[in-house]
Each structure stands twice: as C-alpha cells, then as structure tokens.
Amino acid sequence: MGTYQTDFHEWIEEQTVLLKIGQLERLDVEHLIEELECMSARERRELINRLALLLAHLLKWQYQPERRCTRWRLTINEQRRQLALILEDSPSLTRRLSEFLPRSYQNASRAAMEETGFLESPFPANCGYDIAEILDENYWPDGI
Predict the structure, then answer these.
(1) Which residue in 54, 63, 64, 144 could disulfide with 79, CB within 3.0 to 4.6 Å?
(2) Per-residue pLDDT tens over the stretch 65-95
(3) pTM summary value
(4) For the chain, what are the domain ranges?
C-alpha cells in the first residue's frame, strides 16, 4: 500500500478507489485537503501567469508599433486561447479576473519594460485595458 510520502501515484489511486466505494473513513483527509488546495493555487497561478504574458505582449504591441511582428500576434492569440480554456474548465475564476488583474499587470509591465529596452517605464501604473478587451480576440490596442 503506497503512502502519500512514498508513492504519490499509488496514493492517488487508493484515495480514488476509497471514494468510489464509499469508504470515506479510510481516506487520508489531511493530505487530500492539502492536494486540493495546491490544485486550486496552481490553477490561479497559471491564470495569473498567462494573463501577465498576454498583457506584456499587448503593452509591447501598443507601445512599440514599429516592432510588431508575427511572433507577438501569435503569442497574444495563444494566450487568449489558453485563458479561454482555463476559464471554460473553471468558470468561477472568471469572477476573480478583476482581482488577479493588478498583480498580472504589475508583472506584465515589468516584463514588457525589460523586453522593450525602455530605460523608464512608459506604461501606466494601472492596467488601461478592461477584462473584456484583454480576452477579446479582435481587440488590438493602437500604438501611442
């Protein structure tokens, strides 16, 4: 019998079987709670990171129109698709996008500044795009 510490995969399979057959008293509740919390945190981190990557490319697109390229467009489109999939799988995260936006934007503006080579940030302190624009596959910010 695998344990959480020695054979994670086997532990998951055992916990699954116990749930399926209704032997709830035999579940490793402490570790199940820990794993569920970790899964939730991973989903949030992935959403925040993909949102930051998308925002960084939208900033570069807007603030460096002369350097726009296919790679930027592809990255923007791919991140929008990946965000849509995450939100489709976990619709409750949609309600939290406005909560995650400031953190994602802060990370995005730092990354965009580093990637663009600007010595001082030309980007606004707060995100100038709303959630609908960010996720809209037809939205492309104009250059400044």
Answers:
(1) 54
(2) 999 999 999 999 999 999 999 999 999 999 9
(3) 0.86
(4) 42-135
